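Hi support team,

I submitted a single chain yesterday and got back a structure, but I'm not sure I'm reading the token output correctly. Could someone confirm the output below corresponds to the sequence I sent? I've pasted both exactly as they appear in my results page.

Thanks,
R.
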Amino acid sequence: MRAKHDPSVDVAIAGAGSAGAAAAWLCARRGLRVTVCEAGALEEAGARWAVSVPGWTFDEAGVPRPSGLELLGDDGPVVVVAGERRCRFEHHGVLDIDGRLLCARLRAAAAAAGATFLDHARVERWDEATARLHTTAGALAPRFVVDASGLGGARLLGQAPPRPRDICSAAQHVHAVRDLEGARRFFAAHGARFGDAVSYLGVAGGYSTIGLRCKGERVGVLAGSVVADGHPSASALLERFLAGQPWIGERLFGGARNVPLGRTADRLAIGRVAAIGDAAGQVFSTLGSGIGHELLGARVLADALASGRGPEAYGVTFQRRHGGELAAFDLFRRLTQRLTVDEQARLIAAGLFSPALARCGLSQGERLPGPLPLARAALGAVRAPLLGARLARVVAGMGLLYALYRAYPADPARVAAWSRRIERVVVAAHP
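Hi R., thanks for writing in. Yes, this is the structure output for that exact sequence:
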């Protein structure tokens, strides 16, 4: 049912998925009048599968951590497999969450705080001259507009679509476990315990993966690949894997979508309009995961709008706080996308890919490696000099990107020159 609404609002949001719902809640609880326009049915908006989110992002965003049925797994050990090599690590702080229940919780909290949701209300365009947001449910006259409509959404900032090689095909299913003993044998064969996660790297070459974890009588299975690199889609990888695992039973829920990879858009806001989530490129590319940084973006955005500083202050603040980690780890993603599975196995064998470095990536920027893991990586570079040299260029570039993002310019006229410096770092890391 379509809600009645006042066309004059403080914040109009395109998209009611996790990014839009989080922004709606955090803005509404700060006293802003919020209307959210969702192109489809509200109950279908956002992730319909299990997602992995670092716990620290909930804390920093001011969003309570999931519990009960929403929480599928909590910080369990991970075994990474590349060819015949394995790397086991734990204490990474990542939570496995039912995306359906997370989105529903955020929307319910936003509605309780006073936000209005319009279903089947597709945003068509923003008219700067008349300050009207045109939707299929009518025109709104908001003070601010937020594009949370995702990769293929409204593009209210005129965002260019990502290049094909910067699009990850992702699919995730949760299945019943048909044979518990068969499941235990599967995990034991990979040096893992039942309940650990097993993640295969480079299953179809480069940036492609299969990952799975059991909890009780359920197993979540994730696949990802870059189709533009000539690899099968994530759904095809998933179906192929499941066909060889008779211990996995019927599908309970899940879904698939494309995820933008790369660093954030150079400008996250122009005038009255801001972008958040996939629409802004706020995705941790190494893992193809965006929800954690969507929550962080929603917090920064709500603070900026409620304080009267406006959308452009949000853009500057987010870039300086979090843009560096997204750009830096995207540089690492570009490295892995070029590696064969044998090269990834050699990274593990040489110690260039260690538990401490893996935790750093999985925690999505919370934990940077200390001197001991870096020293061990340096020793690994001696054992595998060619791979070590490639990794060294990337690590040096990552440090430069952190520094450049901390100095993100407040003056929009200086952003283009800043962006050219970023591109020079990227090219130097991957000549």
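A quick pointer for reading it: Residues 1-5, 371-375 have pLDDT under 50 and may be disordered. Let us know if anything else looks off.

Best,
Support desk
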